[in-house]
Amino acid sequence: xxxxxxxxxxxxxxxxxxxxIGILWGYYIKNSLIICMTTAFxxxxxxxxxxxxxxxxxxxxxxxxxxxxxxxxREQMVMPKGFIPSEDVNPSAPRLFSDAFMLDYARHIAIxxxxxxxxxxxxxxxxxxxxICQTTLQRATELHEAAKERLLTKGIYSxxxxxxxxxxxxxxDKQTFLRGFLGERRALTxxxxxxxxxxxxxxxxxxxxxxxxxxxAKDPKVKKYFVRGKEIAHKHIEVFGSLLKEEDLxxxxxxxxxxxxxxxxxxxxxxxxxxxxxxIDIGIGNYGLSTAGSPRRDxxxxxxxxxxxxxxxxxxxxxxxxxxxxxxxPPPAPDRDALASEKGDRG
Length: 347
Fold this sequence. Notes:
By secondary structure, the protein is mainly α. It contains eleven helices and no strands. The chain has two domains: 138 residues, Ferritin; 144 residues, Ferritin, core subunit, four-helix bundle (Ferritin, Up-down Bundle), CATH 1.20.1260.10. It is 67% helix and 0% strand. It comes from Natribacillus halophilus. This is DUF3231 family protein.
């Protein structure tokens, strides 16, 4: 019996777990999105240094997709359709974003992939799935460093604010450390500054994307959805930025002037809508981490309030995609009640 179990372990991988199936499915769709975005960007980018970064981002996503396809084919798992350049990209469309914006976009995509792949490592079991997550993480880290170095070299990197380094150990001795509404409020901590700065930064990128998407979207409902996204991003930038400015800390620069005036879309409405909902998912995750890292009550409650606002927009985006038959069904667990009913009907 032991020999049979050993032979099985050597010759056959265990079945994919729910988390592994979810990772294969989600990673594939998001890689296809990145491939389409970078395909369009590469048609218009002029700076050779930025072209190199975008080409790396596209190649990494293609290589990551190939790893996923290999596992799916071996397991006879159908892959999602995702996005296809021939269907979701218009290469002849005029430039929508500046070269500088494309470079910072690549950096933020790398950050999102680093977060996703890092989380994936902790929930996979099989060695081939671990390899996918680790390889994806390594490639995204390399892309982030390349994009950051180009931004620094060109003088367009938004460096987080600097504060004096601590000179001695200190302990909190009053509950006023948590206070944020009444009475004197303490200064922001380094961790709170980090989260506020990051959330302004991601919203400035999101606002510029929404501006561009709203200009070029064909469907009126989709266009209205992007305008709403732009307004929400602007509001969140103002809220988080004001907390930094109260401490005389500079928020990151905006990207609004890096959107052209074209009304011809380089992307399908389907791709842009999905991209928006994906950005909202990232934002909700960021706000959750920021809440945990912000003990000052007013800041934590601000994140909770704004998180609810973007969660409603995510739901409306999902409903919009359902109405347009754009939303692919994630892999579900078997409906045991339906299966039992079906068997009973046959009997």
